[in-house]
Structures are given as C-alpha cells and as structure tokens.
Amino acid sequence: GAGVSQTPSNKVTEKGKYVELRCDPISGHTALYWYRQSLGQGPEFLIYFQGTGAADDSGLPNDRFFAVRPEGSVSTLKIQRTERGDSAVYLCASSLSLSGQEETQYFGPGTRLLVL
Amino acid sequence: GDSVTQMEGPVTLSEEAFLTINCTYTATGYPSLFWYVQYPGEGLQLLLKATKADDKGSNKGFEATYRKETTSFHLEKGSVQVSDSAVYFCALSNSQGGSEKLVFGKGTKLTVNP
C-alpha cells in the first residue's frame, strides 16, 4: 500500500506478558517515529529512527520499552513485562527527512494495546 | 522542554459557524508549527503547517498564522461543515534538538451539527 501500515490493529494481552508491535513505513522514507496516545491525550513521542539507528530515544518511558529497525525499513516496538498503564494506541509515522528540510510526518492507523 | 497548549474541548458548533481553536506554544529557537486532524475511525492527518514567523498555513478552508510575538498558531475556519467534525491537534517540531519529533497538544474535539 501507499501509506504507513501497522500490525496488529488491536492487541489484548495480560499483565506481565511480552508484546511486539510492527510498523511498515512508506517506501523510501528514511525517518521513522513511534508515538503513544493515551485516551483523551495527544500523541507522545517515544523514539525516532534515522535509517537503522535510533537517533533519539528520549521518549521511551523505561527499559521495558525497546524498538529496532534492523534494515532501515520495518520497525518493531517491543514491550516487556507489560503493565496496565501501557494500555494506549501506539502510532507510527514516517517521513522522507531530506537533509536540512522540514518533512511532513505520515501516520499509520495505530495499534490499540490493551493490557488486562 | 517544548510544549503546546491548546483550547480545551469539546467544541460544538452549528453548520456555517465560525471556528477558532486556540493554540500557544513554548519552545527554544524557531520551531515549525502544525495542525493535525483525526477524523472518526481514521488516523492522524496533516491539515496545515507553517515553518517560520508570519507564515500562514491553509488547507480545506482552514487557516493558521505563525505568530512569534504571541507564540500562537490559532486555527480558524470561516464556515464549518458537518464533515469537519473531528479531533484537532496542534503540534510543534523543533529541529534544534537534532530530532524532528512532534510535540502535540491534548487535542480539541469539534462537533458540527446540521
């Protein structure tokens, strides 16, 4: 498809379990972002990749959260020992990120995570 | 750190009414400013943006002007339609930190009644 895709669209898990959320960015986009949106709030930044490397991971809330982008395309957000407070919509965005230019971020539909 | 404060919702208007959603920001340097919209059941979409002071972003009849002196980026539309019902997010991006991450406000839910 032409847009950012995210799988699964919904994920229900139990407290303490491990989950993986996948993001497939727009082809050719070098920058990839993860955000988390809690109910009634705006999205909050988690981590930013430029190519394969995490250029800014200052938004990851703690060491239970980790993300990878091994080939500079698809990214996986991994959450260990999930807690009920991790319940939120996890959004992925990508952009061309040409050097020195402000590029529009295109968002995927999100993965709705519910931790019981 | 950088932050965005936007008008609390929800906002309910009749069709053809004038819309203003206030947005102010706190940031070092010269951020870029954005309005994103989330229609029911859909993902976030960029509505408009402005990258420097006094720039006006516009799209689909919506406008917002980057005012550095008042650190504001208020969203306006002269005549709203039922199809404009959505949640609107003001956001900034500040490349000074080396990352173009977006910092969002909490969102304002707009309902337009026929």
Describe this structure in words.
The complex is a heterodimer of chains A (116) and B (114). The model of chain A has no long low-confidence stretch (mean pLDDT 93). Chain A contains no helices and eleven strands. In chain A, 35% of the residues are buried. Helix content of chain A is 0%, strand content 47%. In chain A, the strands form two sheets. In chain A, strands 2, 4, 5, 6, 9, 10 and 11 form a seven-stranded mixed beta sheet that branches. Chain A has a four-stranded antiparallel beta sheet with strand order 1-3-8-7, with no helix packed on it. With 116 residues, chain A is mainly beta. By secondary structure, chain B is mostly beta strands. In chain B, 0% of the residues lie in helices and 50% in strands. Chain B is built from no helices and twelve strands. In chain B, strand 7 and strand 8 (62-65) form a beta hairpin. The mean pLDDT of chain B is 93. The interface between A and B is medium-sized, with 27 and 25 residues.
Index terms:
heterodimer, A: 116 residues, mainly beta, 7-stranded mixed beta sheet, 4-stranded antiparallel beta sheet, 11 strands, 0% helix, 47% strand, globular, B: 114 residues, 50% strand
Alpha-beta classification of chain A: mainly beta
* Number of DSSP strand runs of chain B: 12
The major sheet of chain B is characterized as: 6 strands, mixed
Q: Name the largest protein-protein interface in this structure.
A: A-B, 27 and 25 residues
Helix content of chain A: under 10%
- Approximate strand percentage of chain A: over 45%
Q: Extract low-pLDDT stretches of chain B.
A: none
Low confidence ranges of chain A: none
Structural class of chain B: mainly beta
Shape of chain B: globular
Total helical elements of chain A: 0
What overall form of chain A do the CA principal axes indicate? globular
Which series of helices and strands of chain B comes N to C?
EEEEEEEEEEEE
User: What is the chain-wise order of helices and strands of chain A?
Assistant: EEEEEEEEEEE
Portion in beta strands of chain B: over 45%
